Amino acid sequence: MVQYFLPAGMRYSTLEERKLFYTENFDLEKVAQWFEVLTSKTKFAVIIGRHTKIYPKKYKADSSTTIVIDEYTNLEDVKQQIIEFLPEAVYYDRNVYDSNDRKVGQELAFDLDPENITCPIHGTLADKTKRAQGLSFCELELEMVRQEAAKLYRFLSNRFSEVRAVYSGRGFHLHVLDNRAYRFSEEERQFLAASVKEEGFHIDDWVTSGEMRLIRLPYSLNGLVSRIVLPLKKEELEIFDPIHDQRTLPKFLTKVTS
Ligand SMILES: [Zn+2]
């Protein structure tokens, strides 16, 4: 399998690096802060090696499936389960469930990815897909998607009071935490997604409409690019440099080797 083309310094993490990150650098306090209310019903999920084809041998059969982690005692327990799987990606489920495991709402989110940006050098997503580089992106696309995320943040701030931005390692996520947004119907979500696209934003419909309920866990490792998933304040998003910002660099990349 051909490795994706990625900005300088971005590359797949090895199993050893994933292990090092989750045992030594994964910041559970910050994860807990992200979930102001972590109910026992919050579900997590991992994908071990769907894109990277890097996985522990014993999980070969499940390397491309989405494995849900919904039985755990606390975040430390979740972390231990992540260390068992050593996944390329960790997610949480935006759905909110009641005590009978029925879905009662969903966190509203927007996903902006660089491959959806039409690049002056690499062309449209269709062009990239034709060359089997559908998940590739360049620094220029990353900067363009950052500008779009900042603009979408301003757009959403006019309509909602609790908007949060997250750098996903590839693109950006915007989460809306207003109570009323959790209760939006499917139709309201689809309408909102359509109006945001009409404004020229390149969002992933699946995430906003709610069909894709999983979203990358903040402070986890994006193993496709070796970057830490990082929440950003509005001011930070305006000037953020995803390639060089030290906070997104896992320690295994910054260790000096001689
Ligand atoms: Zn490009």
Can you give a write-up of this model?
The mean pLDDT is 91. α1 packs antiparallel against α3. The protein is 33% helix and 17% strand. With 258 residues, the chain is α+β, with helices and mostly antiparallel strands. It binds zinc ion. Zinc ion binds next to α5.
Q: How would you summarize this macromolecular structure in one to three sentences?
A:
This protein has 258 residues and is an alpha+beta fold. It contains 10 helices and 12 strands.
Write the layout of secondary structure elements.
Blueprint: H1 15-25, H2 28-34, E1 44-47, E2 66-69, H3 75-85, E3 89-93, E4 95-97, E5 103-106, E6 108-112, H4 125-130, H5 139-157, E7 163-167, E8 172-176, H6 179-182, H7 186-198, H8 205-209, E9 214-216, E10 221-222, E11 227-228, E12 230-232, H9 234-239, H10 251-254
Helix pairs in contact: 1-3
The structure holds zinc ion.
The low-confidence parts are none
Mean pLDDT: 91
Helical content class: 25-40%
Task: Give the N-terminus to C-terminus distance in angstroms.
Answer: 30 Å
Largest beta sheet, briefly? Answer: 4 strands, antiparallel
Task: Identify the overall geometry.
Answer: globular
Number of helical elements: 10
In spatial order, strands of the major sheet run: 2-1-3-9
Radius of gyration: 18 Å
SS-derived structural category: alpha+beta
Oligomer: single chain
Q: List all distinct small molecules, including ions and cofactors, that are bound in this structure.
A: zinc ion
Q: What is the chain-wise order of helices and strands?
A: HHEEHEEEEHHEEHHHEEEEHH
**Strand percentage:** 15-25%
Q: What's the total count of β strands?
A: 12
